[in-house]
């Protein structure tokens, strides 16, 4: 048995040597910390004393007595529903439309659409949505007469989630969009020519019969990225509408974990929250990648 | 006769295509204005004199641009005990090493994971997806413990090494390389090329768009990396850490904060523009693929 494994390793030694530099770092700095953090969810850990094992009590407390956690799940689902799929489709659509442009405009538009993700400056949004008449949105709305008094975008419980969703959409276009651009650029020109010979006559047919099927790996990548960025949203919201947000109206699961981890120093509880988030994301990712796999094959 | 009709048809087709190109251009322009607006505001506010920052109605331009915000920013940074050049040096070291190491390590690993059959491949692939999806604020504590065990706390390596091991970049490259037909790699193998040569001479030249994307991701994230909890000595801190001190003083320093944002934005934009240009040039030249 051991001999068999050994001969397998020797046979593929080139593979393992090429994998080694990345995998060693990845194992030490990502896999080990992840493995170490999983058991923390079953303990009471305040970062000063060593963790005390408490069994499933963190998890039962989360679902049975933490009303704000249940609320945060609802907020996160709303948030994901409005930012995830919209952003994914928008990323693809914009990347594809840019690809249809002449080459000078392509560089130009790619830059315009990607700059927001490089300049993740939240303070400018606080000024745009500012609650007094100096805010750009308020002053615009008052000028054209839609509202008469300034709207409290950042503090009114009715608006905080909408404001956060808009900012997140603006920020989230970046990474997925760029990966899709790379995918589009990788499509062989001859595929289009072959398609034209076989009677594909307009852009929409090109999109459905050539572009989407050959972009499957990039779509998968963008979807994972979108899942991660929309489910784990927290910092953006905290920076825009403050922490905690009015009536916990924009309180996501990640904000809840931040609250328990870095404000109350209940790391065990925070870790349990993150574990539940991971399980949800893993399930969503499996469903989506199965669906994408089926559709693009 | 048939020939003429065919010509006509293709004429109409290209006319249609031109028409819709204009429509697409308009659509992208309108959307682009929305996307670019906040960035435009950042730039305008960074050159606005302080007294113009809070007037009603808020203005979208300034007639008296000033560099005062920028000089204020440098003034604030200069008050630190450590000279400004030290932060610049730290940031450049971190950015360049993370970007270069990521490109080399990730390219090789991604190629092997996408195109070679060996024991453990499936396992590694699923670990990578799990690592991508598992986001926990406890990880930082555990990373701290690992770094402490390795005696790396309070050095630039504490910032560099954890960020080289990014599952995101690996996943991107792996997905992109998986599209290369197996036949190319098989034929290279029968020609006697080793995996290392196949990776660098056959696969990677075909992966320039993905590689450029990887470079942009790596550059951007490491350039914006704050030294965080792993570094305590001021002399090992990075540029974003000090620049953030400037902007954390609230609305009173709004102009200076915007100047800091513009200052931090310039290098990624330059790298991005360069990478984009490079992609398009190589796409234009690489007529022969497959």
Molecular structure report:
- The complex is a heterodimer of chains A (297) and B (290).
- Chain A is mainly alpha-helical and 297 residues long.
- Chain A has helices at 2-11, 13-37, 57-64, 67-99, 103-118, 123-128, 136-143, 160-186, 189-197, 203-214, 216-231, 235-241, 253-263, 267-296, and strands at 43-44, 52-53.
- Chain A has a two-stranded antiparallel ribbon with strand order 1-2.
- Chain A is flat and about 60 Å long.
- The model of chain A has no long low-confidence stretch (mean pLDDT 86).
- With 290 residues, chain B is mostly helical.
- Helices cover 72% and strands 0% of the residues of chain B.
- Chain B is globular, with a radius of gyration of 25 Å.
- Chain B starts with a helix and ends in a 5-residue tail after the last helix.
- At the A-B interface, helix 1, helix 2, helix 4, helix 5 and helix 6 of A face helix 1, helix 4, helix 5, helix 6 and helix 7 of B.
The N- and C-terminal alpha carbons of chain A lie at a distance of: 38 Å
Radius of gyration of chain B: 25 Å
- Poorly predicted segments of chain B: 1-12, 286-290
The string of secondary-structure elements of chain B, in order, is HHHHHHHHHHHHH
Helix count, DSSP H or I runs of 4 or more residues of chain B:
13
Classification by helices and strands of chain B? mainly alpha
Helix content of chain A: over 70%
Strand order of the largest sheet of chain A: 1-2
Topology:
The complex is a heterodimer of chains A (297) and B (290).
Chain A: H1 2-11, H2 13-37, E1 43-44, E2 52-53, H3 57-64, H4 67-99, H5 103-118, H6 123-128, H7 136-143, H8 160-186, H9 189-197, H10 203-214, H11 216-231, H12 235-241, H13 253-263, H14 267-296
Antiparallel strand pairs in A: 1-2
Helix pairs in contact in A: 4-8, 4-11, 5-8, 8-11, 8-12, 11-14, 13-14
Chain B: H1 2-46, H2 50-53, H3 68-78, H4 84-115, H5 121-133, H6 139-149, H7 157-164, H8 167-177, H9 182-190, H10 195-203, H11 208-223, H12 239-247, H13 254-285
Helix pairs in contact in B: 1-13, 3-13, 4-7, 4-8, 4-10, 4-11, 5-8, 8-11, 9-10, 11-13, 12-13
